[in-house]
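#struct-pred

JT: dropping the chains for the assembly here, can someone run the whole complex?
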Amino acid sequence: MRARIASIENIIAQDPGHRKIFFLTQRDHLRLAALSLLGGKRVLIASGFPILKAKAGETDGPPGALALGQALRRLGKEVSYITDAHQVHLFKAISAEPVMTFRDDLLERGGFSHLVAVERPARARDGRYYNMRGEDITALVEPIDELFRKAESHNVVTIGIGDGGNEVGMGRVFKGVMEFIQHGQKIASAVLTDYVVVSGVSNWGAYGLVAALSVLTGKDLLPSGDEIRRTMESLAQAGAVDGVSGLPETSVDGLPLQRTVELVEEMRWHLLPAPLGRVTGLKVGVIGAGTTGIAVARLLLRKGAQVRISEKGEVSIPGDLSHCPVEMGGHTLQFMEGVDLVVRSPGVDPRLPFVRGLWQRGIPVLSEMEAAFEMERPQLVAVTGSVGKRTTVELLSRIMSRLGRSMPFGGNKGKPLSELLLEEEKGPIALAVSSFQLESVLHFRPHIAAILNVLPLHLDRHGDPMEIVRTKSRVFMNQGPEDILILNRDEPNLRLLEGRHWGETLWISAKGRVERGAWMAGGKIFLSPEGDEATEIPCEENGIPPEPFMVALLSAWCLGADVGELRDVARGLGSP
Ligand code: MG
Ligand code: MG
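RK: done, full complex below.
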């Protein structure tokens, strides 16, 4: 369950406002906030952010508050809402429940176990309230944040959900808001909560909390796409405005409604457990009959699954799979009827209507890499980055073989994980992993993970270099204290990932000494994974790019090679 919620926590940190939100997110707070709510009895949910130019409430906040309130009610909690008097009609438009306004003695009288804020203004250090443009909105705000400030002395647990740094709860990430958010010095929230959920859009944070509650309780508590649409339409009709356009419409923070509907759909997929713990007898559909599809089909068969294959083109199926049912020339839902699970080849886009249709029928669809990992739980070195992944894993394999240990390697452009697992050797595998693959991992957990670099390539897909960092961070999302992360210290965005990792971090740098790791100085490479005396590694004219070389050396050290051995095997490594 931890992995599923970690993945949800990662996807709600998508950052359409380009605010470097990901660096403000607090790892595991989503799960902890949900667990805390499960133990609660009476929950007061505050929302409503006034938009100055429209003198009206915005469309970000109330829909999330409502979804959370409805989920909590289904779990048997008592729920009430609170907002400014001038925004009460917005809540009335979407909910039949009573809506409160600020009173000084609410905590004394209310008997609340939890206070939750969804996109609710918080005072800054100067005691005034500001919007994201740094404009003073104090005249439009009732001091509901005061209740959060007093909650602790009433034994009330507080949760804040926000997307910009000026909301209730964001005081918990005050330093990050000061550093990363425009006007942060002025607008940073001075109101902190026990748990904080930072998301790209506050509604998404609230839906994420509902998804986490759903994972923890095994009940789908998320609103349907139609429910979300109806809520947004009622809200816009009642006069709520998009915070970006200032107009009454169903968009949120300038984003079309459909974006939110799709995100909630993706969260819902996290609620379907993939039954790979017991593969024998499992009915599994494989989409794509290329090298990867065939490899994963073979692995599934070896594990005792019943396999059927769907291929959009016309290919010949190898003899050992000839007993499997096959459809060619396109994918159909009928062909997949009755399967427990579908595994898709990396070439098959997870957003295809066919794939969505499978999810909607309650059939989980896993990527080949995720499925192969779940079946065998191999020991992995996973290397990601914009350039040099493949060079790194190939080099690591060569270093290991010089040390007398064979290490298969592959990845996004080489042999897929399933094929590597079909080869008889049991032992660690080196895998190059792309951002595209990382987008759909769930339980994937390499023992050693490395992020080589993050260059602004593929911006057409991600739109923002920070989005690449967020996606790459999924490579270590499930790592624990016994796992190792290798990061490039020369990239400021990667440096900031250290605090999000619970295990040990090793560093590489082309710009000189790092505390623990490998670095270049004066054209030479040095190694000191334990932070003691540095050892020079011979690298003269070996033609190996330094970043992959350093990551390969550190990975080999993590796998048990000592520094002296590495110095010896590095000699002449460049020549084939
Ligand atoms: Mg906001
Ligand atoms: Mg917002």
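JT: nice. Residues 119, 162-164, 167, 202 surround magnesium ion (ligand 1) (CB under 6 Å). The longest strand covers residues 42-47.
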